[in-house]
Amino acid sequence: MQLTQIPQLKHTDSNNFFLLAGPCAIEGEDMALRIAEKVVDITDKLKIPYVFKGSFKKANRSRIDSFTGIGDEKALKILSKVSKTFEVPTVTDIHEISDADKAAEYVDVLQIPAFLVRQTDLVVAAARTGKVVNLKKGQFMSPESMQHAVKKVTDSGNDKAWITDRGTMFGYQDMIVDFRGIPTMKQYAPVVLDVTHSLQQPNQSSGVTGGRPALIGTMARAGIAAGVDGLFMETHFDPVNAKSDGANMLDLSLLEKLLTNLVAIRNVINQI
């Protein structure tokens, strides 16, 4: 799949990795625009193709009192405003078949959560919208098994699929990324590495997922060195007070230095 198939995606001729980044969840218009403005400024400077990420709702929560969203239509309209304001594409995750057409009216990429990537009807519904479908590898799935998820998209008449690796469960409260799977999955579709969710520490007794954000740079550098096509990361200007996944987000103030470093690594990789 060519990146040029995505409306408004800039810097596609830079030979850089592409980036999906933004807050875990849309908490409001001001926060979304503030984060998008900063990331757009950085990625334009570094010529990184950029897709703004934000979940319009969070259906997979540890506790019933966890934040799930500000309202579907309200959040989707904010994603649309981000796209129009900064002329960048957007991505959001969907959880139900009915979400596919609803979200496709507002965003450019539909993301299938890792826990749901084997849900055939959901994947097919996303594919039939004609949007790019970002398939998150299940924490319980092998790299080889993702070829079947991609085939569900292509057999539905859509050749625009990505695979995102977000780690594999290691025991009950940790994730690992097996970088041997990157070249395997690249046989099936462009591969993205999720450098924030792969550092989650789920199943905490508190019901709030933990994380190891200090290792985001390490994970991202390893991913670029391993040849991933893109990176996914969640970032926020105030991770401690973010309403979802704050424990494994990158502080927005650290993003430019990290991306500058990653572009330098990518340039070396391109010369090998």
SSE blueprint:
Elements: E1 18-22, H1 29-46, E2 50-53, H2 72-86, E3 90-93, H3 97-104, E4 109-112, H4 120-128, E5 132-136, H5 146-154, E6 161-165, E7 168-169, E8 175-176, H6 181-185, E9 191-194, E10 200-201, E11 210-211, H7 216-226, E12 230-236, E13 250-251, H8 255-271
Parallel strand pairs: 1-2, 1-12, 2-3, 3-4, 4-5, 5-6, 6-9, 9-12, 12-13
Antiparallel strand pairs: 7-8, 10-11
Bin the strand percentage.
15-25%
| Total DSSP helices | 8
Report the span from N to C terminus.
Answer: 23 Å
Q: Class in CATH?
A: Alpha Beta
The CATH architecture comes to Alpha-Beta Barrel
Spatial order of the strands in the main sheet?
Answer: 1-2-3-4-5-6-9-12
| Principal-axes shape call | globular
Average pLDDT across residues?
93
What brief labels describe this structure?
272 residues; alpha/beta; TIM Barrel; eight-stranded parallel beta barrel; two-stranded antiparallel ribbon; 8 helices; globular; 3-deoxy-8-phosphooctulonate synthase; cytoplasm
What would you say this structure looks like, in words?
- With 272 residues, this protein is an alpha/beta fold.
- It has a single domain (3-271), classed as TIM Barrel (Alpha-Beta Barrel).
- It is built from eight helices and 13 strands.
- An eight-stranded parallel β-barrel has the order 1-2-3-4-5-6-9-12, surrounded by six helices. The protein has a two-stranded antiparallel sheet with strand order 7-8. The chain has a two-stranded antiparallel sheet with strand order 10-11.
- Helix 1 (29-46) packs parallel to helix 8 (255-271).
- The protein is globular, with a radius of gyration of 17 Å.
- Belongs to the KdsA family.
- Residues 12-262 form the DAHP synthetase I/KDSA domain.
